[in-house]
Request: fold
Amino acid sequence: MSESLARKVVADKEKGLTDEQIGAKYSVNLKFIEKAIVEKYGVNISDLKRPIKTSKQFVPRDDTLQSTTVWSFKSRGAWATHSGNYRGNWSPYIPRNVIKRYSEPGDLVLDYFCGAGTTGVECKLLDRNFIGIDINPDAIKLAKENVKFDFQGDLKAQQQRVIDFVKGDARNLDVIEDGSVDLICAHPPYSDIVQYTENDPADLSHLGVENFLNEMRKVALESFRVLKDGKKCAILIGDMRKHKHVVPLGFWTIKRFLDVGFRLKELVIKRQHNCKTTGFWYTNSIKFNFLLLAHEYLAIFEKSVGTTKQRRKYGKWKTDYEIVKPELESTTVWIFSPEDWLTKTLSNIVHRYNGQNYAVDGEGKHVNGPLDLAVYLNPANITKLLQKVKSDLKTDGVLAILCEDVRLRNGRVFSKAIQIERQMRKRNQFMIQEIIVISCENGATIQNENELTISHRYALIYRRAR
Ligand SMILES: C[S@@+](CC[C@H](N)C(=O)[O-])C[C@H]1O[C@@H](n2cnc3c(N)ncnc32)[C@H](O)[C@@H]1O
Reply:
């Protein structure tokens, strides 16, 4: 990076120019701007002129708990000292929901990727003890500032609680005793997307996918060690896109946690609202045939013994549908009603993937020679499905598999989508192109203390390579 250019970029940021304006002025991308800021300030923040402000509000306007597996918050939340200034910080609604659902006042909560301290602020407001750890000492300073506020709550309880931040590494939690934490609630950096330090090799945001996953396994092992039996560990992680194909970083990270012994209690889809769904992006998403990433996964793991080999009961799908000319979706989250979700999903898939010659569950009126597109609905057996697909689908054709996660009798979740992605990857003949989430809620909010209502399905889109 040219030093003089970096200085000019930071000077313009300090004057209040936006990233777009700076990008256009010097022909630099967002990564360059962020790198220049981290070099000068030590932290990746978006607005250099904004001081920490404390709002007069200490609870969100809508404080009801999320009750289904699709979480969507229209605004990111600006109560207490919350702001979106630290790049990559999560909406306070997420830790708030997790803390309220999975811990009690007085419990100890840990966030080992604490950044600017969002989870710590919520612990202070919700009367929990908290340890925040981050690799970046400047983020720790910022987090300490963010929890310095007074609010009208139970003063005695506040004085008894400890909200602590220390510089450290999530892969090595030596400062924390075995089985001492009641809840882990953390949002890791994503492999090589937003970078949080200039060049600290311990900063996981500098790693490529393979190394990132290997290091996240170490984080999972440490999480398992420090958590009390029966308690929860909530991790928010999303996917990436490379060469127009999705890289399922979310599923792969979740698998690392399951491999060290965690069970899956919930798999939540967190919708992202900063996606552009009109104009330039809409046109490009259709022209170049890709969907804009609009979701992340919030996996709630449980440290508990017991088998995962439970019988799985698959719900029956109503499979009447027709293929119509749809309004094309441009992001990875499709919101439909329970009545017409299948018609709209299949119509979108057929039109987007140019299915002149397509079949659904092996049947189709339009079949004439090898298929362009084969769609399967909630298949039980991938080996059998692939045998059929191999003879029916042409090379470069599209295979779309629709499926859903299942609630087991012991209350845990079996993710069929993660299993299918794994089985398909082992086969090596298909390249995953998209992971689409179809949300079909009926608007009924059932408040269940123990579990969320599974209200989403997936469409996994593959291209046949050979
Ligand atoms: C996505 S941000 C978390 C933001 C935080 N939830 C908030 O709301 O401010 C990820 C954080 O992980 C930190 N980080 C990266 N590698 C780390 C490691 N090995 N141990 C601990 N923290 C690390 C980064 O410095 C960054 O602050």
User: Anything to note?
Assistant: The longest strand covers residues 227-238. The chain has a mean pLDDT of 89. Residues 333-464 form a domain with the Rossmann fold fold (CATH 3.40.50). The pocket of S-adenosylmethionine is lined by residues 86, 88-90, 112-116, 118, 133-136, 139, 169-171, 187-189, 196, 202-205 (CB under 6 Å).
